[in-house]
Structures are given as C-alpha cells and as structure tokens.
Amino acid sequence: MPRAIREFQAPASGSANGIPRRFALTFDDGPDPRWTPAVLDALRATNARATFFVLGPCAAAHPELIVRTRAEGHAVGVHAYEHVRHTELDAKAGAADLDRALSVLERLDVRPEIWRTPWGVEAAWTRPTAAARGLRLVGWNADTHDWRGDAADTMLAAVAPAIEDGAIVLAHDGLGPGATRSGCEETVALIDPLVALARSRGMEPELLA
Questions:
Q1: CB neighbours of 111 closer than 8 A, spacing ≥ 6?
Q2: Active-site residue 32, yes or no?
Q3: Residue ranges per structural domain of the chain
Q4: Least C-beta-crowded within 10 Å: which of 12, 79, 119, 129?
C-alpha cells in the first residue's frame, strides 16, 4: 500500500519547553466484529488512544463497536463506503461514496472531521470534496504493512526509525481489499511494544481529531 502525505504537524519545539512529544496510532478498514474489540482491548491495556478510519458498511453492521470506540476515548474518522481508489472514480461518484459513508456515521451520532482516503490515494477532486464538507485529509508516515501478515516484531523493527515527534502510524483493524493475511493477531500484538517504544522516546499517543 502506498505512503500518503503526512498532515499531522508536531510542535517544532517538541518537549523542550514543556510541550509533550506526540505521535498517532491509526487503524483503517473496520470496525471488524473480531479484531476491533481485540485492538480496543490492547489499547486499553496500554492506556493508549487511537484514531479509527472506518468503512461505512462495517460501521452500519457493527454500530456497537463505534459506540465502544468513542466511549473508550478514541476518535472516529471516515475512510470510505466502498474501498476504491479515488483515481478510479470521477468527482460525482467519489463525493457520493463519501456522503454515503458520512450518512451512516451521522446516524450513529458521529460527525467526523478527518478523512483518510482508500490506500491514501487522491484524485484532482479529493481535496475540493474534503474542503466542501469540512474534512481534513490525514495520511501517514509510518506504515506497518500489517495487511501482509508480518510478525509483530518485524513490523516494530520496520516502523521504529519513523517513530518520532509527529509520526502517524498506519495499521488496520479489519481485513480490507488487498489484505493477504487471514487475521489481525500480529497487529494486536504490535500495540504494546509499539506504544512502549514511543514512550521510551518521550512520546504519548494523541488523537487526530
């Protein structure tokens, strides 16, 4: 999956004058009835907060997980209704897909301020569509590539160099299109050591919205 442009800006002074250093844990393609609860349990065990970019049909099918996600202090952003690259859609179809996903979330009393596009891909119409709906686009700069099914220690080693002030970590709590793994066990296992690594570098997980 391609890297997207980071839009999360950390304070230039870091923690030098009392401003906490920060990074963001993000999860795409849920909620999933098996794996989202496991991810939420792992986050609770580490006292960490995360941002979830959800798919409309998954949110509609599992509204209780949206409720739990928010109740436990996490943020919910919009991903898509259908997980299609924006370069494969025209502006009308792309806007309709986004609005369909937003409509699902609105029925669940969620009004996202942030949007991550499928695969982080943008078309010419993406940013104007986001602006018209008051949405901020969010990418990432530390990709776990967990969709491949890599072991947690392999993923930790891969993202470790990017875990610095302002980092956004991409992971998945669902099995979206293109995933070659059969489950999210290793993503769940990654959460504790990843948070521990960030904290050892003076960073605390922060919500993106």
A1: 105
A2: no
A3: 21-205
A4: 12
pLDDT of amino acid 20 = 65
Residue 150 appears among annotated catalytic residues: no
Catalytic one among 28, 32, 146, 173?
A: 28
Mean pLDDT of 108-112: 98
CB 24 within 8 A of CB 169: yes
Q: What is the mean pLDDT of residues 186-198?
A: 98
Strands 114-115 and 51-55, sheet pairing: unpaired
What the block records as the tokens of 178 is 């293109």
Catalytic residue among 62, 74, 86, 172: 172
3-state secondary structure 127-192: HHHHHHCCCEECCCCEECCHHHCCCHHHHHHHHHHHCCCCEEEEEECCCCCCCCCCCCHHHHHHHH
CA nearest neighbour of 35 among 173, 153, 129, 150: 173
Instruction: Answer yes or no: pTM beyond 0.85.
Output: yes
* pLDDT tens digit sequence for 133-183: 999 999 999 999 999 999 999 999 999 999 999 999 999 999 999 999 999
The candidate with the shortest Cα–Cα distance to 138, out of 77, 57, 72, is 77
Token pair listed for 28:
């795409």
- Tokens 């179809």 locate to 93
Please check whether the domain covering 21-205 is classified as CATH 3.40.50.620.
no
